[in-house]
Amino acid sequence: MGILGLGFRQDWPRKGIEPNPAGGSRHPSSEPNSTAGMPLLDRFAATVLKMTGRDFCAIARLADDGTALTPLSVMGNSRRAIQKGCACLSQQAVRMVVETRQPLVSNEFGKQCSKAGSRDVSGVGYFIAVPVRDSLERSLGVLCLGELRDRWPSVEEVNTVEELSTIAALGMENASASWILPGASGSSKETNTLLTILENVNSALPISVAVDRCFAALTLLTGADRYAIWLLNESLPRLSLVFAAEGVGVSVPADYWRVLDAVGNGPFVRGVARNRLPATVGDATEDPRLGKELSGLLGQASLLALPLSVRDVVLGVAMLAAPRGAALLDPHILPICQAALNTLAAAIDSARLAEREKMAQQAKGEFMSVVSHELKTPLTSISGYAQLLSKRLPPDSDESLRNYLTVIMEKTRHLTQLINHLLDVRHSGTSHLVDPQEVNLAQIVISSVEAMQALTSRHRLVVDAPEELTLRGDPFRLRQVVDHILTNAIKYSPKGGVINVRLCVEEHQSTDRQWREAVVSVADPGIGISPMHLPYIFQRFYQADLSGSRHFGGLGLGLNISQQIIEEHGGRIWVESRAGVGSNFCFSLPLP
């Protein structure tokens, strides 16, 4: 993703958006994703884009009169994204973020602003705006992140942007011409160090590499020549030494590591973790909290210990040691070090979560494999015996017996379908679900409608489709999707009625290409879906029936599996619904 940016004049509110002549609209360097030589706030915005993969990042500060926002940097992956990012900063809803000090989160920001009379941000869907505040909780401005498509930001994404706002605050607090105009003299060594860490420390790296990069930058800033990290053991209530290193030319005794590990559960380090506050030591030989062994090993060193925390949860403690007289205890250094370690803590937390997710996926796969096998074996026998009994019943037998056998076979089929859904979930994360070939989508839709009509007398399924529409797809999986959508339409229309099924071809055109797609829609007159559930309806195990009665049954897997199948075909699936009116489920597939 190439990153473009705008530089702004300080008098932007009076003259409107005016690209800086020295920088203007530009590629940061000959390499599309490089941030070398960029103003620091632009570096920050570009780094946030690379970290998050969004379309634009905008930073603005509160004007002196407190009534307007002055843009400092807008970076995006296209000129259109940049234009939308600039327009977002002028919206009343964004200014309210600064006034209320509350984040703004939206999945259709452009539509919401259009209703309020502003069409400048049309096309912006995903949008997060968080207030930027200084260490005294004074409002400095706003940090925005957006996409040119509708999608709900996750809680984790909002938390990440809020954490990044602390770094933006450091930039605004030290704002000068060198922050805004390319080529201006002077720079902030502290913030430059922090941005270097932000650019090079992320969850994609092994934790050991992230730690090395973080402290390599901090040692240059603070003059520290040793560091140590203790992390809280998740199963035992103790801090364990996991990383420690010393600078080039610094020698340590053989028992240095043993002493450091023990110090992790002493009053100094545990006090930092318990109080969630930094602690400093001017002379290690004079602080009784360190113990005689560590004091003797460190000598007359200065120490800075800070909590490693993510969203107010302490993961551990980091300690820097430097010769007396170094910049380590400079009060201006402390917020830089804390922000840097928060970035490192986020990378450590993400690595831990990824490892837990990997282990959970393995355990889930093993569990589903065993359970599915153990369940399918008796179900096959039950189904077989029920069919055999149905065939051998005398013609004059009690009609209720036939009804009982029909119920047994139907419930057996339903259980088999649930087991197959579980197996699909198991394989979806490790292999492809589809095996594409030439298929007649029209025949798949029509045969599915005919089969489903035979199962219901209270509903009338009306199909509007051509006799033939050929594309590349997996016939089994596409039939699975259509069957599931039709099953839901029948299930969630308890009063019966007409269900309209339509297959058509839609043609689209943009500035650089044309394309065609097949669109299948299923409209029912059922209970509908409330707006609060719509953003999550395709999530795994999610059900809109949250009353606790589980009246409609199911596992909440069918739509999630259908989404994966359609997306593997290169298509998309969506729903339009109104509570009490009905739903219209649609999916599209690309045509040659």
Structure commentary:
It is built from 17 helices and 18 strands. It has 592 residues and is of the alpha+beta class. It has four domains: 4-186, GAF domain (Beta-Lactamase); 192-346, Beta-Lactamase (2-Layer Sandwich), CATH 3.30.450.40; 355-428; 437-591, Histidine kinase-like ATPase, C-terminal domain (Heat Shock Protein 90). The chain has a six-stranded antiparallel β-sheet, with helices on both faces. Strands 8-7-11-10-9 form a five-stranded antiparallel β-sheet, sandwiched between helices. Helix 8 (189-200) packs antiparallel against helix 9 (207-222) and helix 16 packs antiparallel against helix 17 (558-568). The two termini are 27 Å apart. Residues 7-37, 175-187 and 546-550 have low confidence and may be disordered.
Helix and strand arrangement:
Elements: E1 4-6, H1 12-15, H2 40-52, E2 56-62, E3 69-76, H3 79-89, H4 92-100, E4 104-106, H5 109-115, E5 127-133, E6 139-146, H6 155-173, H7 177-180, H8 189-200, H9 207-222, E7 226-232, E8 239-246, H10 256-263, H11 267-275, E9 279-281, H12 291-298, E10 301-310, E11 313-323, H13 333-392, H14 399-428, E12 437-440, H15 441-453, E13 459-464, E14 470-473, H16 475-491, E15 497-509, E16 514-524, H17 558-568, E17 572-578, E18 582-591
Parallel strand pairs: 13-15
Antiparallel strand pairs: 1-3, 2-3, 2-6, 4-5, 5-6, 7-8, 7-11, 9-10, 10-11, 12-14, 15-16, 16-18, 17-18
Helix pairs in contact: 2-6, 2-8, 6-13, 8-9, 8-13, 9-13, 10-12, 13-14, 15-16, 16-17
Strand % is 15-25%
Shape: globular
Q: How many DSSP H or I helices?
A: 17
| Main structural class | alpha+beta
Distance between the termini: 27 Å
Largest sheet, described in full?
6 strands, antiparallel
How do the strands line up in the largest sheet?
Answer: 1-3-2-6-5-4
Number of domains: 4
Roughly how many Å is the radius of gyration?
A: 30 Å
- Ranges where pLDDT stays below 50 over 5 or more residues in a row are 7-37, 175-187, 546-550
CATH architectural category of the largest domain: 2-Layer Sandwich
